[in-house]
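Q: What would this complex look like in 3D?
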Amino acid sequence: MPPAIAWMDEVAPEQAVSVCGAKMGRLAELLRAGVSLPRGFTVTVEAFRRHWDQAGLDEVADAALGGLGAEAGPAEIEAAAGAVRAELAGRDLGADLAALIGDAYEELSSRCFEINVPTAVRSSAIGEDSGTASFAGIFDTYLGVSGQDRVLDAVRQCWASLFNTRAVAYRLRAGTHHRDMPMAVGVVELIHARASGVAFSVHPVTGKTDRVVIETSWGWGEAVVQGLVTPDHVEVGKADGRVLKYQVADKTVVSAFDYAVGRVVETEMPARLVSRRVLDEEQIAAITDAVLAVERHYGYPVDVEWVLDRHRREGEPVCVVQARPVTVTAPQTAPTEWNPAAMAAKYVFGR
Amino acid sequence: MATVIPVDEFINDEWYPGFKPGYTHAPWYIDPVQTFRKEDEENFWFLDFHWPRGLTPMGLIWNEDGYNWSSQLAAEQMPLPPGRGITCRLGGTHTYGSPLPVTDVREIGQRARRLERMLPPFLQNFDEIWGHMREEVNESWDYFHGVDLSALSLADLRENLIQARQYHKRAFEIHFQVMYPLLANYVGFYSMCTELGLDPGQIGKFLQGYDTKIMETDRELWKLTSAARRAGLEQVFAAHEPDGIRAALAAHGGAASTWLTQFDDFLQVYGWRTEGSCDVALPSWIEDPTPALGTIKTFLLKDTDHDFEAARNAAAEEREAAVDAARSTLTLEEQKLFDGGLASCRAANFPWWQDDHNYYIDLRIALPMRWACQGIADRIGADHQDDTLYLFWEEIMDVSAGRRPYDAGLRSLVEQRKQYFDYWLKRRPTLPKVVGTIPESVNDPILIEIFGLNSHFLRAVEAASSGSQVKTLTGVPASKGTGRGIARVLHNADELHRLSPGEVLVCESTSPNWTPAFAKIAACVCDGGGTLSHAAIVGREYGVPTVTAVGLATMVISDGDEVEVDGTAGRVTVLKQIPNAQG
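A: Here is my prediction, written as structure tokens for the whole assembly.
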């Protein structure tokens, strides 16, 4: 029987995605490629299936969702999906599974030399960002989850997010069955973020392949990823690592750790950080190195989410917490030599 | 639905009273100069800013030999792939230009391949090519300059006029043979820079700071200004209008007389030029030094002398800093492209040539024709020296050959034609800026860069003709900074005295005689032009926020409106409209 828990540094790279889902599986691959990652484990696809079967959720799902057609409206979908979510999150986990996850969490805490280590709990469904369908941002992520009970709860919320309204609607339209995208869940140590952001190994809008584009803000990356804040925008030349452009934005919202709630939450940015530049040259170079290492590993353009540890020292790598292929327009074929007639044709005579 | 502005008001067969075009006296290359016909409405026509006063009958020679011969010839020799140069139609005395398109895709492809072979060597060897051309132009200039017209018979004057026209025509062949390839290269570079994300306001700086003959003239004018200041002549300049300064200085005597001698020496070197461009009806500074004296009067208003050396060094430093700043934002791959384009544009520097060639061609090449016409006027007993400028080429040929007497009939025609000229001069401010069918885009580099017929311009025309309220206008950011003030909408340089310090100049376009105004205005807005038009260059030199190629500024903005000009963003906003002005 396949394991319910898979440690990132133990799972075989070639099986990583099928065992750990897309997101966590790719991270496990990258660990072998030498990219710096947070420590952690995955509650595997197998664990999800086990719970699903033990709880008899097939019947629940078939009954609730079976009647929905491709043209079902949002209210109709939400009524049906809500019923499945409630059962999925509410039914007893079973002593074995709960103990396995709880034990893995304690092991993670001890590996991090911390009691009740705060974690990031991330959905990692099979096929969630395959070439044809992107479920990016649809499934849940919880940052700053600490303690066995809270972790267990967050895992079940991630499972349930497989049936949130947007996901169900998306599958209805795409003609995908939920059974084809079982949900693994990653539990990794929460990096104490000084700053976070995304980095693209290709310009996400123009498709230019000669640069790395970085977007960043203070604190954790949720506010950037969800578009709640206008981040600093940085462009770096790939060939020589020179910073081509650094636009400092007014960053009004920050994802910060709320100790009272025990979670990372979105809150107002402290005034003295709003218009302060986030990254220095050395940090930009480390982020660029990381995204290019990921690109080299896969052999195609990627975007990564990265975190700058509060305790990181100069020269140390940044931590990658997510990586995926970029879906951009076809890369442009840029001219490499000045050719006056060709330029005139393009810019003067062409239109 | 394409926007169409009717041409009906211009449809008639008459150029000027008493003349029907016969098309026998002036060859054209693709399409002749004509009056408007209804079918012209299918094409796009723009009002040419070069002649804000309109053209006299003799002045129309420029249309025939400039646009309809030389531009069309140049567009075939070193082919513009989709264009055959420029043609024109007449709205009374005013010129509407239009690009002549090539529509056959196969032909466009072949022309593009020809251009691809011919353009690089032209650009690489530009110095030598332009050097030979300049030599040719100067050699003939020396010839015409050296002829003693007073010693010639009427028949010899006629022969001299024919030669002078041929010289004029050849000079404009050269003009367009250089202008098209240089502009194609420059506009290509400019557009590439824009696409690379470089600030359009900076691109003009990459090629600045090289000496031209026009700058040399300015420098001498500043020297004369210092001399006038040292001689204590400020009061004389301040107390008189430009056209009265010369007489006042002569009457003043003493130091003023010495200064006038210096001034005349200056004129002998730099005074063989007209104030506006390409018009046989305009006098040289030698003939009428008012513009030069007016410029010195304005220069004297400034407290300190202009340090040319410092200004040029600053321009060169600014150029290098702008290039460095631009390169720092480019990837290595982009830098390679940029460096190649910059090197090509420096070897064949359009902005430099644009200024320099005016001295050799546009501002002086019509003078030999003018002298011959005046000599003929003298010999046939015309009432005024300029009367022969109101004859058509065929008429002056007949009269000077003795085939037709300069009789009461012709004299009365000349008077009628002067009235016709004045009638159309008054209509100029209300003439439509464009007529015919507004295109999606224009692809003749001269029309894009010199006339500013870019997409901004075309969309502004469409918006205005659809009746929508235009409060904010956009154009080319030509000189950075923001200026705000009362708008003065001027239609030619004669009205410059209406400008008060701190006001915003709004006009179709400026030429060298508008320069003095830049010493006092808060901002400048032009219907036409680009980053290198006169207003853009002078605006940068004087630090006056300037937006060019706005399209319909002179129609949308009313004299007296309060406007804000953002020369960095290329935006003009009407803040307050004066009451009773139509929007």
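A: To summarize the key features: The two ends of chain A are 64 Å apart (CA to CA). The first strand of chain A starts at residue 5 and ends at 7.
Q: Very helpful, thank you.
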